[in-house]
Specification:
Number of strands: 14
Largest sheet: 6 strands, mixed
Number of domains: 2
Structural class: alpha/beta
Strand order of the largest sheet: 3-4-14-9-10-13
Helix content: 40-55%
Radius of gyration: 19 Å
CATH class of the largest domain: Alpha Beta
Shape: globular
Number of helices: 16
CATH architecture of the largest domain: 3-Layer(aba) Sandwich
């Protein structure tokens, strides 16, 4: 009897990947989250729902996005061969729309009137505001005050698209606080709102649901890479904050003999508050309704975090990433702020592709890996484009001369 594919067996019916995951939520959220779970399990088998989603992806999002061979960058490194899955070419400029359109479609089926969510770098916020406009829904995006200042272009885009942007003004005023703020707003009206979580985090069913919606990235990439080269890549890599873009591309290769590296943001040091490397320095704990590996302070509370990439400065990681790392199926890569900026400029100058700072973490790791593994092929999920980051980067890091 053939073994079932991994994606059909994980998580279990309670949303656990091993000991990670689940739904640790207050009683008033149990009913709405059970409603979302039932609806998703039904719609994920519905021809009408899936057909509408396929049409949206093809005719609105512009999928499939291509796989591109970085010949110039690969030659400059003189090592392994680097390829990119170009999610920066997905409508709105990042992978986030893959699950946002699906979540908004789910909200329509449930009769919801409003989408509510958090955002870090603003990519999820822009994607959800786009989905809300498409489906005629209200949209409210919670974003840390620090990120609002840093990611100004995306804030403007959200407002142009018709979304209300609510600043999170407590704590570090970044992604964790945005999640806190969005949860509080959602609790006030679970009847008419859908909390469209922006990554493979949160209570069940969101880690599974977002992974399933993002798996289109891995399914496409696997087929495209085989068509281009006649074989699978030796290694696949993606940046990991919550981890939606990584689980998306890993999904296409998880049952294959392919190395999978999730790249964590090392920020500016290895002390608490200087990085966001949850899998590297974290321990088991519960935050935002799910059990995973998280960065904690001396009191066991979520620790302050830092990354130049606003979309990956989160003190925990999706429970599936915690599970896959623990069983050894995925490996952890690292990239600090300066390495991410170097990759940002190098990809721009060698290939004419300006990456998001979050995606630049994966590119930087791929460059290091390629130099050490000259006979391997490396597939990077280029999860977003860098328009949102150019002002911040050039103001803080001078544009280098191309070598």
């Amino acid at each position: 009897m053939n073994k079932k594919p991994y994606l059909e067996t994980m998580p279990d019916e309670n949303g656990f990947f091993g000991e990670f995951g689940g739904a640790f939520i207050p009683p008033q959220l149990e009913k709405p989250f059970a409603e979302i779970t039932r609806a998703y399990m039904k719609l994920s088998k519905s021809h009408d729902y899936l057909n509408e989603l396929r049409n949206i992806r093809k005719h609105y999002q512009g999928r499939p996005t291509p796989v591109y061979y970085c010949k110039n960058l690969s030659d400059a490194i003189g090592g392994g061969q680097i390829y990119l899955k170009r999610e920066d070419l997905n409508h709105t400029g990042a992978h986030k729309l893959n699950h946002c359109m699906a979540e908004a479609l789910l909200a329509k089926y449930l009769g919801k009137k409003k989408l509510i969510a958090e955002t870090g770098a603003g990519q999820h916020g822009v994607a959800l505001a786009t989905a809300a406009a498409y489906f005629g829904l209200e949209c409210e995006i919670h974003m840390g005050e620090v990120d609002i200042a840093k990611e100004h272009p995306n804030v403007v885009r959200m407002k142009i698209l018709g979304a209300k942007v609510v600043p999170a003004t407590h704590g570090l005023k970044t992604l964790k606080e945005a999640v806190d703020s969005a949860f509080e707003a959602y609790l006030k009206d679970t009847e008419n709102q859908l909390f469209a979580i922006g990554s493979v985090v949160g209570p069940h069913p969101f880690p599974k649901m977002v992974r399933d919606f993002q798996s289109v990235v891995g399914i496409e990439a696997r087929e495209q890479f085989m068509e281009m080269t006649g074989k699978l890549p030796d290694m696949v890599t993606a940046c990991v904050g919550g981890g939606s873009n990584a689980m998306g591309i890993f999904s296409g290769f998880i049952d294959e003999d392919v190395k999978l590296y999730g790249v964590e943001p090392m920020g500016k040091g290895d002390k608490i508050g200087e990085h966001s490397a949850s899998l590297t320095y974290g321990k088991e704990g519960v935050m935002h309704g799910f059990r995973s590996i998280m960065l904690c302070d001396e009191n066991g509370e979520p620790a302050p975090v830092h990354s130049i990439g606003s979309g990956i400065d989160y003190p925990s990681v999706g429970p599936e990433h915690a599970y896959l790392s623990k069983i050894g199926r995925t490996q952890i890569g690292h990239c600090n702020d300066l390495e991410a900026v170097d990759a940002f400029y190098k990809l721009s100058q060698y290939e004419g592709i300006i990456p998001a700072l979050e995606s630049a973490h994966a590119v930087a790791f791929a460059m290091k890996y390629a130099a050490e593994n000259p006979n391997e092929s490396i597939l990077v999920n280029l999860s977003g484009r860098g328009d949102k980051d150019i002002d911040f980067v050039v103001e803080n890091y001078p544009i280098p001369q191309k070598k």
